[in-house]
Specification:
Blueprint lengths: L34 E2 L13 H20 L13 H18 L10 H10 L8 E2 L1 H16 L8 H22 L3 E2 L14 H9 L14 H7 L4 H12 L4 H4 L1 H6 L5 H17 L2 H4 L3 E2 L12
């Protein structure tokens, strides 16, 4: 599978989302449990409807409720609270049952395959960390639901701004509650410690906005007044809540991006950056799992 056929193709990474004529799998589809296929650096060459939406939000609400039911434990270490492992064990046990609430019974055979991506999307229970690879797994989870026909291209706006946004809320709660470490963070030189996709989709949302320009996202007043309506600004608000000091120092990449003249250029640049820094990075993709819905088969030339 190439970057062009990666998990984001189903959802789109820019201002327009890619249509697909393969929403529903063939009747003879054989589902398999996804497994890792990127074991060495050379393997990187292999990579290069309303009711359903509500059910997905309900699934995420369940994950949120489990956080409330699993408070942090007292421990010497400030970061990586071990209560996260208890929370994750609950998800590991119940993931297939949760996915079964979203997938119709005639597609029940797909549940074990799709559930793997849900479990991969919430962080690592050994290291108690979370990063863009886990975020990509949730995009893959949504993509699989598109491929089997549970979600449709017509749902694309709600998929991003309702389902994915709810996912972000739950992940932020996880990060704060259990003091999760950033997985593979580049520190001040990275875009963000935990997320990337909401900056892409959020900048897309702001293209041709009548008054909000990229320079405004480093303006505290503009962010405070508009963050509830715009995914990009909500990301900025979360950063400022989690980090101290001047924005230009703790988020230098974003500070530089604020000087870009238009949201369309920001969006295009972020897509290129995502491909280079996430989709084409071995430390990220080595953990990605492939199955029948997201295979690693090479692209054939037309």
């Amino acid at each position: 599978m190439s970057i062009r056929e990666g998990p984001l193709t189903c959802l789109g990474t820019g201002s327009k989302m890619t249509d697909s004529s393969e929403d529903v799998p063939p009747a003879t589809q054989n589902f398999i449990v996804p497994k890792k296929e990127i074991h060495t650096v050379p393997d990187m060459g292999k990579w290069k409807r309303s009711q359903a939406i509500e059910k997905l939000v309900a699934l995420l609400n369940t994950l949120d409720r489990w956080i409330d039911e699993t408070p942090p434990v007292d421990q010497p270490s400030r970061f990586g609270n071990k209560a996260y492992r208890t929370w994750y064990a609950k998800l590991d046990e119940e993931a297939e049952n949760l996915v079964a609430t979203v997938v119709p019974t005639h597609l029940a055979a797909a549940v074990p395959e799709v559930a793997v991506y849900l479990k991969e999307s919430v962080g690592n229970s050994t290291r108690i960390d979370y990063g863009t690879g886990h975020e990509a797994a949730f995009a893959a989870f949504l993509c699989c639901l598109c491929k089997i026909g549970v979600l449709r291209v017509d749902d694309q706006i709600a998929i991003v701004f309702k389902v994915f946004n709810r996912y972000l809320e739950v992940m932020r709660k996880l990060q704060k509650t259990y003091r999760m470490e950033p997985a593979g963070s580049q520190g001040v030189w990275g875009l963000d410690d935990f997320q990337f996709l909401p900056f892409i989709w959020g900048s897309s949302q702001l293209i041709d906005h009548p008054y909000l320009e990229p320079r405004h996202f480093v303006d505290e007043k503009a962010v405070s007044e508009n963050h509830k309506d715009y995914m990009f600004l909500e990301c900025i608000l979360f950063i400022t809540e989690m980090k101290t000091g001047p924005f230009a120092e703790h988020s230098n990449q974003l500070w530089n991006i604020s000087a870009v003249p238009s949201w369309s250029k920001v969006n295009q640049g972020l897509i290129r950056m995502y491909k280079a820094e996430c989709l084409e990075k071995f430390p990220v993709i080595q953990h990605f799992k492939f199955g029948s819905l997201l295979p690693i088969h090479p692209v054939t030339s037309c």
